[in-house]
Design brief:
The protein is α+β, with helices and mostly antiparallel strands and 300 residues long. It contains 8 helices and 7 strands, in the order H-H-E-H-E-E-H-E-H-H-E-E-E-H-H. It is 59% helix and 18% strand.
Length: 300
């Protein structure tokens, strides 16, 4: 009986020692970080998080021309029209009514009198699906002198930004978990600085992605309207506008202004001739009197 009790006691003690050994050798699991970072100093853990983020950025898959199907590509549509119209205010009103009635809005609208002829310019934003309809409405307002449409594919940029954003958000989570385990104030401040930097990059990427989405969703059309073709610009390949006839006309007006200035100066000179004669004569008489007085004094 005593031997059985002793044997059971030895078995119980043996299992207890075995359980203790297993528990002491088991690696603690750290949420959010891999087991390889266990046992690292706090600064080394921060360095590892930054290193992993840098490696992920470098290993992000490069996007090529076949990133997305043709139907899913992100295209920023822009267009410009130079129109000769009969009535500029009426044309501006017609465009405004069309834009507001089709889910768009007018960005800028200006009507002025340029070189004795009315001139108007507008920039409008329309849903991408209404882009061609907006171009067609513009053409119906008058005679098209110049037309330009462009489509910029931003699919690759958007996909790259999305990949970077996902990496930064994963890094943000790791820094938050690391800050929860930090003890000293200096460690907490160090993590906060890194966290603020990561969140700043996240906000920048999100802002750029939002801008691209808005640019794709809303197309942009610029219209130049006038009753005088010389006031209408010519669109160059770089998107800038040029008015060659207007430049020639302006140069001629400048030349006329020079001749006008010279003519005005001659007229003023002729009109003021009597005054010039009076001044010259008075000066001559004063000099003669002074000379005579000086001669009399010498003779005396």
């Amino acid at each position: 009986m005593k031997r059985r009790i002793l044997f059971i006691a030895m078995v119980v003690v043996g299992f207890g020692v075995l359980a203790y050994i297993v528990a002491s050798n088991q690696e603690p699991v750290q949420s959010g970080l891999s087991g390889r970072s266990t046992g690292l100093s706090f600064s080394n853990q921060m360095a590892k998080v930054n290193s992993d983020a840098s490696e992920n950025f470098g290993a992000a898959p490069a996007t090529g021309g076949n990133t997305a199907p043709a139907t899913d590509r992100l295209i920023v549509k822009t267009g410009s029209l130079s129109l000769l119209v009969k009535n500029v205010p009426d044309a501006v009103k017609a465009v405004t009514n069309f834009v507001t009635g089709n889910g768009g809005f007018v960005v800028t609208s200006n009507i002025s009198k340029e070189k004795d002829a009315p001139y108007g310019s507008m920039m409008i934003r329309l849903p991408a699906a209404k882009f061609q309809a907006g171009i067609d409405v513009g053409k119906s307002l008058g005679e098209v002198k110049n037309e330009q449409t462009n489509g910029q594919d931003v699919t690759e940029e958007f996909v790259d930004l999305d990949a970077q954003l996902r990496i930064l958000k994963a890094t943000e989570i790791q820094f938050v978990q690391l800050m929860q385990r930090s003890g000293s104030i200096s460690d907490i401040l160090s993590v906060q600085r890194e966290l603020m930097n990561v969140r700043s990059q996240i906000e920048r990427l999100e802002g750029r992605m939002k801008y691209l989405k808005d640019s794709v969703a809303l197309s942009t059309i610029t219209l130049h309207l006038s009753t005088d073709p010389e006031n209408l610009p010519i669109f160059e390949e770089n998107g800038k506008t040029w008015k060659p006839l207007a430049v020639i006309k302006e140069a001629l007006r400048g030349l006329i202004s020079v001749f006008k200035f010279v003519g005005d100066a001659l007229i003023y000179f002729v009109v003021f001739i009597p005054l010039w004669l009076v001044i010259v004569l008075s000066t001559w008489l004063v000099k003669k009197i002074i000379k005579r007085v000086s001669t009399n004094k010498i003779s005396q």
